Structures
1.
Amino acid sequence: MADLGRMSINQATTREQHSLAQAIAAYAQAGVPGISIWRDKLAECGLEEAVRMVRDHGLQVSGLCRAGQFPAVDAAARQACLDDNKNAVDQAAVLGADCLIVVAGGLPEGSKDLPGARLMIRDSLGALLPYARAAGVTLAIEPLHPMYAGDRCAINTLSQALDLCDELGAGVGVAVDVYHLWWDPILQAQIKRAGDRILAFHVCDWLVPTTDLLLDRGMMGDGVIDIPKIREWVDDTGYDGLIEVEIFSAENWWKRPGGEVIRTCQERFNKNV
């Protein structure tokens, strides 16, 4: 099983209980070594204060969520998106984040052109990448489950994400999230293909039945994903970075006290990751 010394908590896991400042303090007090930060919470806290708190509490920032959402209806909207993504790069650089998570975006409003959306994603990543390289920030493309292709992310398999990495070159890699990828029959082969381009590894569980496709993720061990097996595949590539617990759970974990959620994450990480 995974060492608790590799554990990070994605701030989404306690987003309803904690501000960023509260999450930093609570995770550190519990002995969690890492945090992944969301930009909306960062905006509430302020970048300078977040950097100070992360440093003072000795946390590692495993990722900044998120960049992306590239497809747009016109050139002006695409440029506005690129400008916002550059701001995300700047934030990731100041935070010293291990990577900037990229959730690429789905179809523009009114569109049914999925291949066209994917071309926009490729071109936008290509436009952002030189800026990220100059800032020393690595972009981690996170493929999302196909159910999100229409509105959140048109990159839906690890294979698709790695094809983009092959095309774009240095400075871009992938985030492997078991919730989005566990179903893929060629996942093991694609993880092996990813090799040292795995920049982030996210864990939670898939509940059966699930009551909400976005906000009903399970705690590790409560669902059907063989998390230890996927973790072994990831470790076999040489990945030795932090492993993020990322749970969106509107009707369960977001309604529990933050301390209980953190303790449960640690217990389940130790047993089920």
2.
Amino acid sequence: MAITDLIPWSRGRDLTTRRSENYNPVLTLHREMNRLFDDVFRGFDVAPFGSSFFEQSMNWPSIEVNESDKDVKVTAELPGLEEKDVQVELVNGVLAIKGEKKTETEDKDRKFSERYYGRFERRIPVDDVDQDKISAAFKNGVLTVTMPKLPQAESKVKRIAINSK
């Protein structure tokens, strides 16, 4: 492979005329596919497979899961929403937080937006919680779901001592 093959501005050349002993059609196809993906995602101003706004919106709302000996707490940030816009369900050991964030303006009035609108759903697997004692609180756009553990779940924890040598 020649060093000129690595230079990005060499991509504009006609690839069908490049016949040499080092010509590799698979490598050429690979380069062209990368160029096509780069061009497509450059139009959206996002990285194709990196941390981007598109990727972040797929994981909206942001959640935090804390576990202690007695309970599991799930906190979700839901700015701009009210309690009536959110549903919390526990089905078959999976906590589901879902709802919809509606836009305040019409699309014709909007010039640019990085805000997320639409339906959302996050699913968090939880084990050995007392379904009858689960509580949820919503304050200042933050949802906190507290799930006390069952007594037998607390006894399943076995602490292991670490010995120093």
3.
Amino acid sequence: MKERFVITIGREYGSGGGEIGRRLSKHFDIPCYDKELLTMVAKESGYCKEYFEKYDEKPLKVLSYFGYNTNSSTLPINHQLFLKQFNLIQKLAKESSCIFVGRAADYALKDFDNVVNIFIHADFEFRRKRAINNHNIKTEDSASIVKKIDKERSSYYKYYTDTSWGDSKNYHICLNSSFIGIDECTKIIIDFIERKFKF
């Protein structure tokens, strides 16, 4: 019988981390949670998904959330979203094998022993072109948007985890998708997971 496992994927914008997550989901026939987490949290909270999207993976420069009642309406919306996603990630990871893309899932699951944390990065020009071709970003805006989203993700991760986003010490596997290719990145992860969790 296959062991239960969880994969978390941190990713630079445009590196293909989300696509790799979806490919792994299809291969292993397990759920991949990315924007889906927003939908689930929004449904649970009574907010519309679009409201939460404004705050997704973005930091908040105010007092720390620690010590707040997580159900309190006075909790800043960024913190409400982070904590609800944090709790949902842990709940889903306890229930079945799955994949999480972003949302500091590696931090949420740091005390779990069946988790493989992956970070996907790539050369800037590769990411800028993918932003244009895969995310419908205007060419003239592509460079600034890639930089902006990377900065937001880095600040979000640092704010909530007090560690550095993209630092290899925080992950088990770091892959350069512009050098290796998205297909090969996916194959490397599949091979490792199948060997580690005794497929």
